[in-house]
Design brief:
The complex is a heterodimer.
Chain A (H helix, E strand, L loop, with lengths): L1 H4 L1 H5 L1 H6 L1 H9 L6 H21 L5 H11 L3 H18 L55 H37 L1 H16 L2 H13 L6 H10 L2 H14 L3 H8 L4 H12 L1 H25 L10 H8 L8 H28 L21 H14 L16 H15 L4 H11 L14 H8 L4
Helix pairs in contact in A: 6-17, 7-8, 7-17, 8-9, 8-11, 8-12, 8-14, 8-15, 8-16, 8-17, 9-12, 10-11, 10-15, 12-15, 13-14, 15-16, 15-17, 16-17, 18-19
Chain B lengths: L1 H27 L6 H4 L6 H11 L6 H13 L17 H36 L4 H14 L3 H21 L5 H19 L3 H25 L8 H20 L5 H20 L9 H23 L3 H35 L17 H38 L3 H8 L4 H39 L4 H10 L3 H29 L6
Helix pairs in contact in B: 1-18, 5-6, 5-14, 5-16, 5-18, 6-14, 7-14, 7-16, 8-9, 10-11, 10-13, 11-12, 11-13, 12-13, 13-14, 14-16, 15-16, 16-17, 16-18, 17-18
The chains are: A mainly alpha, B mainly alpha.
Chain lengths: 462, 505
């Protein structure tokens, strides 16, 4: 009778109280064929109850991802910024025939006022500035008197559309090809990887330039350019996903799934791809960011968006020599590219942290003024390393709060690293140090360690 | 293993062939090669169009044009390359020779710098995860990732090159500048070295005082115009390199390795005097021969003195020898610096890959190419450095959560051994993949860099060729990048198999 021998059930009256009927039932009629199953269910329930008690509230996977994402320092502001830029770019000059609130078009020229200097001013009068105003041409005017704000907004629209389309196309293609190649191996893998190599072997910019030149003669806007860029940027994702899948498919859970007769599509879709979600998400956002940069580079070289249209790269290319005389023609598009690409990258970083099941909820990260100077981060990292390495199979979704953290382990680890800073004293000293560290309570597995470890200890007895 | 490599090489060759077909077809269909003539008002327009059609074989079907090009390339195997002519009738082989030299110089240098620094930074940030340094480096890498290269290039030209040249006209530091530099260095160094608060404070103070005192001293020496190292500095840096390499590679308690490194450093100082006249105005052959001698001596010292830890000793003495060699070269460059300044006036140029009509001694020529390389290399390396450091960090963190790392710690290994021998080696596996396609991407990135800095390199050749729908220069560009990419992929595959026996196909 496991429940009888398990000391915790008796020591922990609260847990018993939560499920009084079930526990009592099992204790009473102890025989029968389903006894084993009932015991197992019971045990899991008791464990769950204990966990609930410790953690307070349980969250679904989606809730946890959302929570971790919201707690990410850089990702949330980046997301907000991206949304704002999106709204600004599309609402100001309108899109696809829908008029926006900005009355000037990026296509019509007018007379150049005041050398085309920007009228935007953000310094209030009481600070010696010209007061906060928006003005007639907030970003200034270009050579022919076109409103630069409208031009830049149009360029931003193009960049955002391209980014989204490229991200979508390249992620779908890359993840699919990588997963299939990694899972099936053999000739399918060879074929797909040679196809990937075929595209990798041509430098991305070269292939994109050739294809960009092709689409620019189509005269059909930027969607063809975006699709074409997506068709050439999936390769790195495919290789990374394949690498992940190659090592994942050797794991036991895949073998188990295959042994139970799962269809390859199910193994890939249910077991392999979700486990590579970190790689996919990170790479998708990097692909989006690099697509923005790729498009601006192509436009800069003259193989992307063509002249009457506007693009951030094209604007920089047109006005790079104006840097000393009219710097605003150079700064606005450049800063916008940088800001968009940077926030997409941060977004990806936040998503990765949020999706990664191996990363605990790092609530501790939020309060670390000292960490800016590197003073407190080290100890925290050590503590984290300690909690993470001690987390067993069932303990991953338990937040590493102070109550659960095994203090002795982290102290030990810190001790070890600190003493490692000194020159090594040979093997004998190592041995001595280790000996001295044997705690008196070392042979009590349930001493002060987190719950999940006790469950690990029990498994052999089952 | 040989069979594995040969098979990979064969398939790489096929891949290259397939990619060349793809690129050729795409290039000749990317636009209208007669576009400029169609719009012209010349009287003999039709004749010109017909002439160009004849010259570029526009009337042939694509496979015939491709075959013509391919047979030309095939002749490379018998030593007579025939890569066709561009639209102006120049031989592409000649153009390529000049262009490839300057581009590959740029790209190889940028790759090496990015790889070394990126991996080191990646390891450091992974060890000190969630520290201030980690956050700072993470932010910077993200910034570099998101930087439009052509935009940053203009900024670099404006602020770094022109600013430095203006400064060189009248070099010197003010006291506030020295103090700010000291503060910056102190903060950075204490973040990198870390440790308990007291150690951090001492690191900070040491770095700060050193900088604040060293800068006025260098000023007093007029270091910017007449730089020099001197045998004492060379010896000290060499010894520091030996001790540092030993501490990382074998642990300082391993005296054999330490002494091997120190002996190599001492030999380096001796060779500094021995080769002084030889290196006064050398040739590349002399340098190459000396480099071979250097490697041989270093390996000999390592193997003779290493005893039971021959391997570690050899690596340490090789590293020390490399550092000594670099120091000696730097010393000679320093010696040539005043003469070079007299010739060019403003050292960092923003246009071109070398000063036109430049003639000087070997070292002056070296300096000229070096200063021209500086800005484009910084640019290319920054982006690629961000990639390397990011992937190294991610892969180190991934590895350090594995069970075998816990086992290594549990059996009492020092942190140095855990990180360098167990974690780092395993974390190299994903990095090799990055390396393979980062190099090719860099050559692609060089297209933009060359455009901005006005280099007459391969990028310029490619852009002009594509603009004119002229396949010969485009394919010549591809031939170089494609071969490099295949070689690097092959290298990555071999490294994969070496690092992880499970992946051996």
């Amino acid at each position: 009778m496991r429940n009888d021998t398990d000391p915790r059930n008796e020591q922990d009256p609260k847990t018993m109280d939560e499920n009084p009927s079930r526990t009592a039932t099992t204790l009473r009629d102890g025989t029968g064929p389903s006894q084993q199953a009932v015991d197992m269910a019971n045990l899991a329930e008791v464990e769950d109850a204990k966990l609930r008690q410790k953690t307070g509230k349980s969250y679904s996977q989606g809730q946890m991802v959302l929570r971790k994402f919201r707690n990410h320092r850089a990702a949330m502001p980046s997301a907000v910024f991206l949304v704002l830029i999106f709204i600004l770019a599309f609402s100001s000059i309108g899109w696809a025939g829908i008029p926006g609130w900005w009355d000037k078009s990026y296509l019509t020229s007018s007379t150049v006022v005041d050398g085309g200097a920007p009228t935007l001013s953000l310094v209030p009068q009481w600070l010696g500035g010209e007061g906060i105003r928006w003005g007639e041409h907030p970003f200034g005017q270009d050579n022919t008197g076109k409103d630069y704000f409208a031009l830049v907004m149009r360029g931003t629209q193009q960049s955002l559309i391209i980014a989204l389309v490229v991200g979508l196309v390249s992620t779908v293609i890359g993840a699919t090809i990588g997963a299939i190649a990694g899972y099936f191996r053999g000739w399918i893998d060879s074929l797909l990887m040679r196809l990937t190599d075929l595209i990798i072997v041509i430098p991305l910019l070269v292939l994109a330039a050739v294809l960009g030149r092709m689409t620019s003669s189509l005269d059909a806007g930027i969607i063809p350019l975006a699709v074409v860029l997506g068709l050439v940027t999936w390769t790195s994702l495919a290789r990374l996903v394949r690498g992940e899948v190659l090592s994942l498919r050797e794991k036991e859970f895949v073998a188990a799934s295959v042994a139970m007769g799962a269809h390859p599509a199910r193994v890939i879709g249910r077991h392999l791809l979700p486990n590579t979600i970190g790689v996919i998400v990170v790479n998708a956002t990097f692909a989006i960011a690099s697509a923005i940069l790729l498009e601006t580079s192509l436009s800069f070289l003259g193989f992307g968006v063509q002249a009457p249209e506007s693009s951030l790269g094209l604007l920089i290319s047109q006005y790079q020599n104006a840097f000393t005389t009219r710097p605003w023609l150079f700064w606005w598009p450049g800063m916008l590219i940088l800001a968009i690409a940077l926030s997409v990258n941060f977004l990806g970083d936040g998503l990765r942290d949020a999706f990664d099941p191996r990363q605990g909820a790092r609530t501790a990260r939020r309060n670390r003024r000292l960490g800016t100077f590197g003073i407190s981060g080290r100890d925290k990292a050590l503590d984290r390393a300690a909690t993470e390495t001690s987390a067993g199979a069932g303990g991953r979704d338990v937040p590493a709060t102070g109550a659960l953290r095994p203090t002795t382990t982290s102290a030990e680890l810190r001790d070890e690293i600190h003493s490692d800073d000194e020159p090594h004293g040979g093997p004998r000293r190592h041995g001595d140090r280790r000996k001295g560290r044997n705690r008196p309570d070392g042979d009590h597995p349930g001493g002060d360690r987190p719950d999940e470890h006790r469950r690990d200890d029990q498994e052999p007895r089952d | 293993m040989l069979k594995f490599i040969l098979r990979r090489f064969g398939s790489s060759f096929l891949v290259l062939l397939g990619a060349s077909v793809l690129l050729y077809v795409l290039t000749i269909n990317s636009g209208d090669p007669l576009a400029d003539l169609r719009e012209s008002n010349a009287e003999n327009r039709d004749y010109l169009m017909q002439q160009r059609t004849q010259f570029m074989n526009l009337d042939m079907p694509w496979y015939q044009r491709y075959w013509t090009w391919l047979t030309g390339v095939g002749q490379c195997f018998i030593g007579q390359c025939e890569l066709g002519t561009n639209r102006q009738g120049q031989e592409v082989v000649d153009l390529l020779g000049l262009a490839a030299a300057s581009t590959l110089r740029l790209v190889v240098l940028a790759t090496v710098i990015a790889m070394v620094f990126g991996i080191v930074i990646g390891i450091l940030t992974a060890i000190r995860q969630y520290s201030g340094m980690d956050y700072a480096v993470t932010f910077l890498t993200f910034l570099f990732f998101s930087l439009p290269v052509f935009w940053a290039a203009v900024l670099l030209k404006e602020y770094l090159a022109i600013g430095f040249n203006d400064w060189m006209a009248d070099p010197g530091f003010t006291w506030p500048a020295a103090i700010v530099a000291g503060l910056l260095l102190g903060v950075v160094l204490q973040a990198v070295l870390a440790g308990p608060a007291r150690r951090r404070l001492f690191t900070f103070l040491g770095a700060f005082l050193f900088t604040v005192l060293a800068i006025p001293y260098l000023d007093w020496l007029n270091f910017a115009q007449y730089p020099q190292l001197g045998p004492v500095v060379i010896a000290l840096v060499g010894a520091a390199a030996a001790v540092g390499a030993t501490a990382l590679g074998a642990g300082l308690q391993n005296r054999r390795v330490l002494y091997a490194g120190l002996v190599t450093a001492a030999l380096g100082v001796v060779s500094y005097y021995a080769t002084y006249t030889l290196l006064w105005d050398p040739t590349w052959t002399t340098l190459l021969v000396l480099a071979v001698v250097l490697v041989i001596v270093a390996v000999a010292v390592g193997r003779l003195m290493g005893g039971f830890s021959k391997g570690a000793a050899t690596i340490v003495s090789l590293f020390t020898a490399g550092v000594m060699g670099l120091l000696i070269i730097v010393e000679h460059l320093f010696r040539a610096w005043p003469g070079y300044l007299e010739i060019v006036g403003r050292p960092i140029s923003t246009i071109g890959s070398q000063t036109p009509n430049f003639s000087g001694t070997f070292w002056e020529d070296f300096l000229d190419k070096g200063t021209q390389l500086l800005l484009p290399t910084i640019l290319l390396a920054l982006v690629s450095l961000a990639t390397y450091s990011r992937y190294t960090r991610a892969s180190m963190l991934e590895v350090s959560q594995q069970d075998y790392i816990r086992t290594a710690r549990a059996k009492g290994l020092g942190e140095r051994q855990v990180i360098l021998k167990h974690a780092f080696r395993n974390s190299l596996i994903p990095i090799t993949t990055i390396m393979a396609f980062d190099f090719a991407a860099l050559i692609g990135g060089a297209v933009i860099t060359e455009r901005v800095f006005g280099w007459k390199g391969m990028g310029e050749m490619f852009a002009t060729g594509l603009d004119q729908v002229d396949p010969a220069p485009v394919m010549a560009f591809f031939l170089v990048t494609g071969t490099a990419a295949v070689l690097f992929n092959l290298l990555a595959d071999i490294l994969y198999a070496v690092l992880d026996p499970r992946i051996r196909v």
